Amino acid sequence: MLLSRAKRSLSHDLGSGALRADAAQGTACWYLAVVVIIGMLALRFSHLWWVDAVASLFIVGFLAREAREAWQSRHCC
Description:
Elements: H1 2-14, H2 17-46, H3 51-72
Helix pairs in contact: 1-2, 2-3
């Protein structure tokens, strides 16, 4: 997360769209990893079979939002 924040700051200073996109990808991966870990821990400790599926829905929602933002973006490297 700290690396993505530093990349975002540097991309602003340099005006680099590619570095800004790389920072966004790093942040997205971090969020996805957190959702997966929370889902696995909840499944482990609560023994509810549907917790993993709910965590997956959060991931799908997140990815759909990211895809929409990428599709509508007019900035290019």
